[in-house]
Amino acid sequence: MESWPGVIERYGALIDLPPEAPPITLLEGGTPLVPAPRLAAELGADALYVKFEGLNPSGSFKDRGMTVAVSEALHRGARAIVCASTGNTAASAAAYAARAGVSCLVLVPQGKVAAGKLAGAIAYGAQVVQVEGSFDDALRLVREVSQRAPLALVNSINPYRLEGQKTAAFEICDALGRAPDWLALPVGNAGNITAYWMGFRLYHDQRRTGLPRLLGVQAAGAAPLVLGHAVDHPETVATAIRIGRPARGEQALEAAEESDGCIISVPDEAILAAQRDLAGEGLWVEPASAAGLAGMRAQVQAGRLSLRGKSVVCVCTGHGLKDPDIITSSFPAPRLIPPTMAALRDLLGL
Ligand code: F0G
């Protein structure tokens, strides 16, 4: 079997990127679509799959968009890139900047970035700046600075990010041989749901597959698209989607509506419960990534949706390793014993 070549090589003909732009790639994409039969049974669905995007090179789906955005920026002659981030975009931008040999500046909200993301951005060599404020403040600053300084902006307001991210929709359709009936995913800055819809629409327009219904899921404390207005002080345990002014909010709402789906919110407890249940299937994802499953479950439990005979894909956007503290802080430290069989027997009651 041929090895996976990365999303630009694999789906180049369907991606709007100047053909002469040399790909900056870490062979992202090609992530597994893992069946989760117990969760399917619980929700009464015919089948439920997890698109495990945490297995991308920097640990999140952001790499799909970053390969295209950074390739395009370099092709235009950029020598430095910049982004605001709740963490994953930062780590991804830093990785692709390192790969390309250019510098990277990331602005993150103070104290609200999970340890694995911050460590990643630093490890890949980015200049990391904390902002006394939210992601939305950081995004406002990078938008402005990218107009004043020679810094290419690689947030998802950059259309090339979406060009790359839409490839996840192609992969799902290619793996299933059709579009799923439902696609459930977390919504933060709203780029990813927009990108998925672009991808599904493209395959549909080419008469390859049908269209799924989209369920976008926000955290209750950061749900501007559900409330219908910006949230000044978003708060949620799912720090990746702790966003009050989504840059692509309008497009996300349009995509959900066009698909005959919707955008809903779920409380943090439901997100954490879904995270535990996914881990119970052997899939450890970060809290935000569990929002899709939490949302599907909420819809089914409230009787708003029947999944009988339907197939569902939950997009799990980032790896659990990104946010170890959320797990370790809620469990007691493992027991410590002296290195003797007697002590181990004692502990196990043997
Ligand atoms: N899931 C994870 C793990 C994320 O990191 C993000 C966004 C989302 C879902 C939501 O995707 O913004 O396209 O709606 N993270 C951005 C970041 C904001 O800076 O890493 P979205």
Question: What's the quick description here?
Answer:
With 350 residues, this protein is an alpha/beta fold.
Describe this structure as you would to a colleague:
There is one protein chain. The chain has 350 residues and is an alpha/beta fold. The protein is built from 15 helices and ten strands. It has a six-stranded mixed beta sheet, with helices on both faces. Helix 8 crosses helix 9. The longest helix has 15 residues. The radius of gyration is 20 Å and the shape is globular. The mean pLDDT is 98.
What is the fold's blueprint, element by element?
Layout: H1 7-11, E1 33-35, H2 37-43, E2 47-52, H3 62-75, E3 80-84, H4 88-100, E4 103-109, H5 115-123, E5 127-131, H6 135-148, E6 152-153, H7 159-165, H8 167-176, E7 182-186, H9 191-205, E8 213-219, H10 224-227, H11 249-258, E9 262-266, H12 268-279, H13 291-301, E10 311-316, H14 325-328, H15 341-348
Parallel strand pairs: 2-10, 3-4, 3-6, 4-5, 7-8, 7-10, 8-9
Antiparallel strand pairs: 1-2
Helix pairs in contact: 3-4, 3-7, 4-5, 7-9, 8-9, 9-11, 12-13
The structure holds ligand F0G.
